[in-house]
Amino acid sequence: MSSLQKARQRMESAIEALRRDFQSVRTGKANPALLDSVRVEAYGNLMPLNQVGTVSAPEPRMLTIQPWDKTQIKAIEKALRESDLGLNPSNDGNLVRIPIPALTEDRRREFVKMLHKMAEEARVAVRQVRKDANDEVKARQKDDGLSEDDIRREQGDVQKLTDQYVAKVEEMVKAKEAEVMEV
């Protein structure tokens, strides 16, 4: 596998990590991925919420959790209240309902700042891959006797790849920011 292919794979994984991070950011719409960070005290362990019940979004502003074990409803409610998501769950004995309140303007701006921070971390990860790939090319100059022209060409290819992935990060953050700011 060439250093360019390795760099492409690592940059792609940075984009995937950013995509997962963005899913956890709350927008005005209900999204089951919003609750991925919630851990529930169940059977003596802290477990991800999606391992103690089915999370769904039956309406645009409502999430529901159908626990597999009805005795876990109180633990699920407690975990949701203690999470930093600002949600207020209620239950009817069988189902936990979580209304998703509309975001205030200040809260939207906080989320946008958080998105920009996540995007910057992804850009840094992509640039780190570029540095590693360029170091590998320089090492091959010593080991394989690559010419200066070959090195410049390969480093140029790595830079083009880096520019593509940084542009992808920019597109993703613009789209998510528009989604968060949408009223």
TrEMBL record:
Keyword set includes Protein biosynthesis = yes
For biological process, the GO terms are:
translational termination
Q: What is this protein called?
A: Ribosome-recycling factor
Residue ranges, annotated region (Disordered): 131-155
Task: Report the Pfam families cross-referenced here.
Answer: RRF (PF01765)
Q: Where located?
A: Cytoplasm
Primary localization class, coarse: cytoplasm
Domain of life of the organism in this record? Bacteria
- What are the UniProt keywords, alphabetically? Cytoplasm, Protein biosynthesis
Any one of the GO CC terms: cytoplasm
Q: Does the keyword Cytoplasm apply?
A: yes
* Annotated GO MF terms: ribosomal large subunit binding
Q: Which family does it belong to?
A: Belongs to the RRF family.
